[in-house]
Specification:
The protein is α/β, with parallel strands linked by helices. The protein contains 8 helices and 5 strands; from the N terminus they run αββαααβαβαβαα. Strand 4, helix 6 and strand 5 form a beta-alpha-beta unit. The longest helix has 15 residues. The protein is globular, with a radius of gyration of 14 Å. The termini are far apart.
């Protein structure tokens, strides 16, 4: 497995251990992680800290030229909010752990020229299936249902 997806999975597991939703993300520039994070909506009482948004927050202010040269790895297909951030900051490549438990705005990413790869990783799928079965109301809150 790709080392960067493995780091995203570690972030997702950390979020679960903290009592949150098991979704993780890393942002990689020229082979180096510049931002990593996990869904911390529950832990921080936040409305916006999805895994990708937490990774952006932890990457901090970067020149547009840096973000345009990054790959974002996420354990789950990005929601509309996270898709918007990916597009806003010009990320050109997104690697997704899985989209079976939730299908985000992958078509929008592709329509805007973003390279999207979906791995259908068994660990990512199992993390989300187990979480959704255990806490469906929290999951529905996270995706705005």
């Amino acid at each position: 497995m790709d080392e960067f997806m493995q780091l995203a999975i570690e972030e997702a597991k950390l979020g679960l251990q903290e009592g949150g939703i098991p979704i993780g993300s890393v942002i990689v520039h020229q082979g180096k992680v510049i931002g990593r994070g996990h869904n911390r909506r529950v832990q921080q009482g936040s409305v916006v800290l999805h895994g990708e948004m937490d990774a952006f927050e932890n990457a901090g202010r970067q020149p547009a030229s840096v973000y345009r040269d990054c790959t974002l790895y996420t354990t789950l297909s990005p929601c509309p909010m996270c898709t918007g951030a990916i597009l806003l900051y010009g990320i050109k490549k997104v690697v997704i752990g899985e989209n079976q438990t939730f299908m985000g705005d992958e078509d929008l990413l592709r329509s805007r020229g973003v390279s999207v790869t979906v791995l259908q990783d068994k660990t990512c799928i199992q993390l989300m299936q187990d979480f959704i079965a255990a806490k469906p109301e929290l999951w529905n809150e996270d995706i705005g249902v």
